[in-house]
Design a protein that fits this description.
Largest sheet: 9 strands, mixed
Radius of gyration: 19 Å
Number of strands: 9
Order of helices and strands: HEHEHEHEHHEHEHHEEEHHHH
Strand content: 5-15%
Strand order of the largest sheet: 6-5-4-3-2-1-7-8-9
Distance between the termini: 18 Å
Helix content: 40-55%
Structural class: alpha/beta
Length: 355
């Protein structure tokens, strides 16, 4: 995928501003039509909060700087009927070259309409639609708490794959959540998906909701699964710098193993500085795992820079850096690779091996 030089100049500017947010995770809603016992929103989070309106998102967008990565998540993001407009509002201002939207795949019509309406408007942004598939058939339905969830996920995956030919900036991935309810059969699930559907990538996320099993046996199964993933890679990605992002992904997974085995991060966490989470009610968190707010954007006229410069935010960001705060939140770990020059040689070595 060809990206104009102006976009790369903005990306480079973001990467070199080590104290500026370049990775924004937006919870567009906490609502979901499924009931997954391992979901982060099932543990200590209210099932539904006030949601920022489209106009309020516009207020936020007007004061955002250039982004490298924008993630639109939830809950189930496609439960927001204005998601197409919301994405447009954010991308009109940030022009993020990389956009991720995870989904359980239930709302096939809404998802394909999103692709048809948004992707042509932003041809220089790469959109990664990630369908969650944790098991096969009825087992997936049981894990997701609703009959038919597996079939809907497959229908959506196939519909998205059909759209790839007309939308060169579309990447279709599948992601599985690794937890004690499916870890013994996850290898079979991934191998079956690899054999039967042409996903661009398959990935695995360590569960962030259900209290995780960090036993040596569970960690060994996770590491073995990561080895399988390396063998099940899809074709070379269409995204610009796809080899770089695959290297970042590998280092991120190694970072998860490092936290699980040693209890400390492989590199200093940049959550709250280069990555933040915007909750649907306007609260800004340093990450999904640390349920401590940096402040509410509505109290700062939608100005993220002003919020992050507040004493409350500066104190929390300092605590994250000085305490060695460690978790398995892949987005924060990957940001710690991208915005840490000391990790760039490792990225380049992996790129060199793959070429």
């Amino acid at each position: 995928m060809r990206v104009p030089w102006r976009t790369w100049s903005r990306v480079a500017g973001s990467l070199l501003r080590f104290r500026r947010v370049g990775y924004l995770v937006v919870f567009v809603t906490s609502r979901c039509n499924l009931q997954c016992p391992f979901c982060l929103l099932s543990f200590g989070f209210p099932p539904r909060r006030r949601e920022l309106t489209l106009a309020e998102f516009g207020q936020v967008a007007r004061k955002l700087g250039p982004l490298v990565q924008l993630s639109l998540t939830g809950g189930e993001p496609f439960l927001r009927e204005d998601l197409t407009e919301l994405a447009g509002v954010l991308l009109d201002r940030t022009r993020a070259p990389y956009v991720s939207v995870p989904t359980n795949g239930w709302f096939t019509g809404r998802i394909t309409a999103f692709v048809r309406n948004v992707l042509p408007r932003f041809p220089h942004s790469s959109f990664r639609l990630v369908v969650s598939i944790d098991a096969l058939g009825e087992e997936h339905d049981r894990l997701r708490g609703r009959p038919g969830a597996f079939q809907r996920a497959l229908e959506t995956s196939r519909a998205l794959m059909d759209l790839r030919q007309g939308h060169p900036n579309l990447v279709v991935d599948a992601n599985a959540i690794f937890h004690d309810l499916n870890q013994d059969r996850l290898k079979e699930t991934l191998e079956t998906l690899h054999r039967t559907l042409p996903f661009d990538n398959l990935s695995v996320t360590w569960a962030r909701g259900r209290p995780s099993d960090r036993s040596p046996d569970s960690l060994a199964k996770y590491q073995a699964l990561l080895g399988s993933l390396n063998r099940l890679r899809g074709p070379r990605g269409k995204r610009a710098l796809s080899a770089v992002w695959r290297a970042v992904g590998q280092l991120t997974r190694e970072g998860v193993v490092h936290v699980l085995s040693k209890g400390r991060p492989a590199a200093p966490c940049v959550a709250g500085r280069n990555l933040v989470v915007l909750r649907e009610d306007g609260e800004v968190l340093p990450c999904e795992m640390l349920d401590r707010s940096l402040g509410n954007l509505l109290d700062h006229d939608g100005d993220l820079a002003s919020l992050l410069d507040s004493p409350r935010a500066r104190d929390l960001i300092r605590w994250i850096r000085e305490s060695g705060c460690a978790c398995t939140y892949e987005c924060a770990i990957s940001a710690g690779v991208v915005w840490n020059p000391l990790r760039w040689p490792a990225v380049l070595r992996l790129v060199g091996r793959a070429s």
